[in-house]
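Fig. S4 source data, part A: sequence.
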Amino acid sequence: MKKISLAEELAGNTYPGRGIVIGKSADEKYAIMAYFIMGRSSNSRNRVFVEEGEGIRTQAFDPSKLEDPSLIIYAPVRVLGNKTIVTNGDQTDTVYELMDKQQTFEQALRTRTFEPDGPNYTPRISGILHIENGSYNYAMSILKSDQGDPSSCNRYTFAYENPKAGEGRFIHTYMGDGNPLPSFEGEPTLVSMEGDIDSFAKMVWDNLNEENKVSLFVRYIEISTGKYETRIINVHESN
């Protein structure tokens, strides 16, 4: 697979929906993760990321305008020991709770399917970073309908051991805008990972579609110590 520019990939897609990027810094010091959300409806756009414990959650920017919270209010990021979980829905809690009971990432996600938001049947995308004794690996997952047929769920897990410096993988819910929205296809995209946390966060944010972007979370975790830095950008707070 050819490595491509994450900036160009983001700029070339008006509506990737929600996206997860995981990789390793070029100097090999940091595990990098990013999660962003976008929205087309006023309900989806009425959100911000806020810190909660070692993770984050979504909340309504204007609670009086909140319509249906079922698929938009959740904890995208939670930390379980030396594992950091990131997902686009309440399956974060499923992974956290079942892995805490000694099940695997893949086993936990077998209890879930895509979102019940026909006709889009939005895929559930998930990632997990594992840092222990100076080593780092990660995995990504997508649960999606069988080409829009909700009677069948297709499940894919991609695991990356000893990821290469300056490289990452990008998975998102939609291939682009449309009606219904077309689900992501194929293996997570191989992208370059460049810069420190602030320049990386700025690059991602600046290349998300101006009309549709809502919030961005970025975390750099020091592989040797597990210490981390976090950046959050919300469109409602950045203007």
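Fig. S4 source data, part B ends here. The chain has one domain: 6-234.
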